[in-house]
Each structure stands twice: as structure tokens, then as C-alpha cells.
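Q: For a teaching session next week I want to show students how multiple molecules come together into a single three-dimensional assembly. I've collected the sequence lines for a complex. Could you give me the predicted C-alpha cells for the whole thing so I can convert them for display?
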Amino acid sequence: MQADLLNEARRQAEICNACRYCEGYCAVFPSLHRERAFADGDLTHLANLCHNCRGCYYACQYTAPHEFDLNLPAALADVRQASWQDYAWPRSLSAIFHASGVALAAALVAGFAAILLALWLLAPAGGEGFYAVMSHGAMVAIFAPAFLFPLASLAVSLRRYWRDTGGGALRSADLVAAVRAAARMDNLGGGHGDGCNFEDEDRFSHARRHAHHAVMYGFLLCFLSTSSGTVLHYGFALEAPYPFWSLPKLLGVPGGILMVIGTLLLARLKLQSDRSLGAAAVWGGEMGFLFLLFFVAATGLGLYWLGGTTLMPGLLALHLGAVLTFFLLTPYTKMAHGFFRLAALTQEMRRLREVPR
Amino acid sequence: MGKSSTEHPDVVVIGGGNAALCAAMTAAKAGARVLILEAAPKPYRGGNSRHTRNFRCMHHGPLGPLVESYSEDEYLADLLKVTGGKTDEGLARMVIRASEECLPWMEAHGVRFQPSLSGTLSLARTNAFFLGGGKGLVNAYYRTAQALGVDVLYEAKVTHLALEEDRVARVDYTLDGEAKSVSAKSVVVASGGFQADIDWLARAWGPAARNFLIRGTPYNRGVVLADLLDQGVAQVGDPTQCHAVAIDGRAPKFDGGIVTRLDCVPFSVVVNKNAERFYDEGQDVWPKRYAIWGRLVAAQPDQVGYAIIDAKSLELFMPSVFPPIKADTLDALAQELGLPPENLRATIAAFNAACGDASGFKPTELDGVATTGLTPPKTNWARPISEPPFYGYSLRTGVTFTYLGLKVDETAQCSVGNRPVANLWAAGETMAGSILGEGYLAGFGMTIGTVFGRIAGREAAAHAG
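A: Of course. Below is the structure for the complete assembly, covering every listed component.
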């Protein structure tokens, strides 16, 4: 990682450590206040623990024009961002896709092209519904590797990340506590439960937390929907298309709607917020990623409503192309943050357990 | 922004910190049209309240973040201990009694509290800490005030209050370099002390004050205070005195705030620029001695001191905002700090030779581990400075606030001679000298500001009818 990013975060953390006024906002400050000196791994840990709620920035008496010029949310966002790129495997891909919405769009187009090519080359002899356009076997042949490769890549990244930020044995209790914190987005509660500062300077609100919940739970519902379809297909020989009163639809339709609403809300909040308090260099890439998520969800819903029409083959290509892009780029886009965040929360639970009382 | 309110307010509040905001919100809630004239630009709004962190509060049982109870008598006793009896007991008791009811009021006006900060456990029973510190409180109050219809002008510097007969007829101020004035039925002054006016400080204290650092806002220049005192408004507090503590000598000239504190002195040998010791570093725990050290350092040549520790003491105190100067030998450290090396070597050697059995060393209490035959002695925590690397911090005098202020009665009203000024009230640091004649009690400034701010707001609104 660039030394200047770490040095700036270190300079700011040392000032914070002499102040401590922000201790109650989130997990970052109690963690910071336990240290006297900040190794690179400690700063990476703090950076990934930070949810960019900005409470500390608006409460800080040392922000510009003060000569200390504190902007901890931005300093940590820069380190966090750089850490995702550094730990990504293979690394060269990540710098491109994190920073650039244009590169994401290009990948999306490439995804369509790949799917259309597959449709043409692997045209099925028979089959119904979607499988009339692409056989189930072809879909599995494309998507199983596209799903497994990112998981393998993330596993490599997270192993290195965990080692560098403190390591230690992975305990299920810590993981459960971390999942619970992530599930409720505790760190966007502001400590007082009034929420965070994001879209309107120092006003506290739950808007970002709720929008993030919509995307996260929407995504999980969609993921469960696909998983349930796989189980029905292989376990019960029930093939798509599924009726409305079936698990894949009951999970997927609300999931898709939540994702569409959540991504739009997040994009709006992002437009309202002050860019200089985040990782300004990747603003475009983050917007591009939100659009990709929106597009995956919207085309999925489109298939539900228009699956019986002549628009279906085109929509299917768009949807599968977007999903393919999304999966393949998971280690190299903002999507990676969820995995690193969970690792940081777990590491923090482990560190907390080891604090002498 | 309502034009009528900026041009014809019922109440003008001068200042933009805690006391000013408490007065403004209270007056607005009572139905008055309120205008705040804040001298600072928006990022620096809030005066010294920006740098505060807690509120000392009487309570009869667990209250908000506060544990157990803290009685009126105990609170008063704590206050009398630090003021050496220079306290108006009647006003002090009134403030203390009112503090309990303030805490829920503060919460209702947007302030959020947090458990006492790490390193401040001793205050968990007596002081309620603001989540995010004083700027968080100030932000919340501005939001609430604006929702109540209070108008705020930033960079509005009040230059003069035209006192005619027994009332303030007009408030003159500048805004964007333009002279303006406003007439209001009631005026509340809550614009702090004069500690940021270095010339005034030097006139009051002596030329040494030019080397002092000002811990708080550069906007507390005492312009309104001087203007009112010049017109015969009753004053209170020692005009030559300020509350000053020993802080990190590398701190900014203004606005360094909390982070510039240095807690290393009890574990150090402290020398002046000639590398000579001048006072018992181990006389008492640091929270009880940092104010004395502000004065001690002020009395040294060039108003500077140097605290020297060795490797074994580095982690015994709160981390400093800037890393210490570090060297492997005392000579190298002297070079880095700009001290005469032979003197430092001699001073440390004499100190080390005077140290005895240090096995009873206990950093968190008065351990009686003292020097023998040394002048001045070190009466606690005396361990030889022997284990490299060696570390040094420079110390300077940091001014927190000044005592000179406006004398008020229990309704926060100002007076000329023995007659009240019919429409003038004061709150916060600018009248705190009425209660706090000497010393300081952590969190009491915010208590005075909140209690008197609310009283001033209530009275000002009632007068405006």
C-alpha cells in the first residue's frame, strides 16, 4: 500500500488517540484507543472496521480549517480502499474496477457479449422457458466456474488480510457476533441509536442504514432464491419456470424489489453526501457498482414480468450477462467490502476478547 | 432566514457557544424572535464549548450516563476545594441544584451522552460526557435552535453596545466588513472571556504572557466585555488572572484543545531551558497539579519547560498528540531539545543519585517513592532516568480561560452601580467569575453556561413580552 496513505491515517489516529471524544460512536474508536502505536496492520484493521458513518468528522474540533486538518472518515476510506486492492487476487484487476465505473460498464458489455455468444454456440435442442434459449447444462457450465472462481479468489485475499491484521484462531463465537453486528449494521447506529451523518452534514439519520439493509437483504433473498431453484432442480427434479407460489419466486421477487429500491436510495444518498469524506478517487467506481447491482435486480424483475413475451430472450441475455459480470468481478469491486468488513468485525471481536479487564 | 428576525428581533444573543445557544433556545421556546450574533465563521462556531467534553451534574440516583449519586453538598465541597473559598456560595448552590434538571433538558434539545471516556473513569459518577464532545453538543443545539426559528449570523462581530440610561439601546456589529446595528428588546451577552487577545493578556499578566498558548478559540477576544466594563457595567473576578495549565510545547498558538495535554510530568524530571529542575514533579496526581504547572512553567525563562522520561515510563500515561523526542543517550536528547548537554547530564545524575528503593513504585497512586537530599525533592514516583531510549517533551503554559467578567445576580442580570440594566443579561464564561473566583472544576463551566444560559433566555424573553 502507498506509504503516504498509511502515514496520513497514522498521523490522524495519533491525534484521535490523544482526544478520545468520539469513543461512543462506533467500534473504531475503542479499538483505536487500545493501542499506543499503530502498525500498518492496525490501521488496515481500523479502516475496515470503519463504516464511513461520518459522526466523528462532524463532531471533530480539529477538522479544516484547523491546522490539524482531521478527516478520519476519508483517511480510513483511502486505506480501506487501498487494502481491498492490495489484498485482491490477482491484484492487477482490482485497481481498474474499484476506481472506474467505465471499466465496470465495459465488463458488463463483455458479459452480454459472452452470454450472447454462448446462446448462439450452445443453442439447445429442446427445453422450455429460459431453457429454450439456453440449456440448463450450458448455464451451469458458465455460472458454476463464475461463482466458484471469485470465492476462491476471496479466500486467498481474506487469508492474507486476516494474517496481516492480527491473525489468531478463528472462533465461531466471534464470527457469530460479527455477523450479528453486520446484520443490524450496529456501526451505523451512531452509538446513540439516532443513526449516522451522511446526506445532510451533522443531522443524524437512518437513511443510509435502511438503504444498505434493503440492498443487503434484497441480495441475500435473491441469492437464496437461486439456491432454492438449484435444490428444486437437482433435488426434486422441478425445473424452471417456477410459478409465483414457489420458493424461488417468493424469495426472488421481493429480493429484487428491495435491491432496486436500495440501490436507488444509496445512489441518491451518495449524490447528497460530501464526497471529500469518502474515498474520493473511487466515487465513480462505487456509483458504477451500484448501477451494476441495480441492473442485475431490475433485469431479473423484468424477466419475471416479461418472461412470457418475445422480449424474453433479449432480457435473459442482459440479465445473465449482468449476473456473470457481477460474480466474476466480486473480488475487484465494492462487493468485496462485505467480506473484508466481516473479517474486520470478527477480528475486532477476537481482539476485544483478549483485552485484559 | 426571516428578515424581520434579523432586523427586529425581540432578543439578541451575542456569542455562539453553549450558554448563548441555551439562552437562544429557551427564549425562542418562550415565543421570542431571537437573533444570534456569532463572531466566528461557521466551522469555528461554538466558542470554547467546541473543546469541552462533559457536564458536571448533581444527581440523586443513576441519571443518564451517570452512576450512583452526587449530592449538592459533595458537589459544593468539590468546588470550594478548587476555588480556595473564592466562590459565591448562593449562586454556586443555585447552579448545582439546577444542574440535575438540565441533563434531561439537554437530551430533549438534541445532546447525546456517552459512558465516561477511557482514561476518565474517575469522572463517571460526577460528569456526563457528550457523545462526540462539545462540538457534537454545539451542532445539536444549532439544529434545535434553527428548528425553533432562531436566526444565526456568523462572522457577525459585535463592536459596541450602546448603553443609554438603564438599558441597551442598540447593538453595533460588523458583517462582511460592513458596519451594522440592531435594536432589540432584550440582549444576552454570552461571548466568553478575553484570553485570545494576547495584548490584553500581556497587559494583565505581564510580558511573559506573549509566550503562552491559548487552548481554546481565537475568537474570544473580550471585545464586548471590554466595551461593557468601559461603560461602567459591574465587573467580577481578578482582572490579572487566567486559568492556565502545562501543555505540549509544540501545540498550536490557538485552539489546540484537549489533545495538547501532557500527562507525563509525575513520571518525569522536569527542567527549564538551562536544564535545571525547579519543582517537585511528584507532589500529587496530575489532574490535581496540571494547573500549578501552568504557572510554574510561566515563571521559567522563555516560559518553557522540558519533561524527561526513560523507556520504562513511556506507557504509564495517556498518549501525547505529537510523538515525544527520542534519543539513545541523554546527550543526544539534550541536543534534540536544545538543552545544554553537560547541565542535563549533571541534573539527571544528581537526581538519579538521590533516588532510593523504587520497588514500591505504583503509577496510579501516591507511592511515596521519593528522592533524598535533593532540592527541590521529588516526593512520589521517583525512579532514576536510566533506561534508554530517553524521551523528552517540551512544556508550555496553555491558557484555558480568564476570570474577569460581568457580575450578575441570580437572574443573570447585569448592573451598573447598584442598579440593574433593565434589558441586559449575561451567561457562560463571560460571567463565570461570579461563581468561580479561582481554580477550575472539570465540567463546571458547561454547568454554569447551561444553567445561566437558560435563566438569561427565560428572563430576556419575559422582558421582551
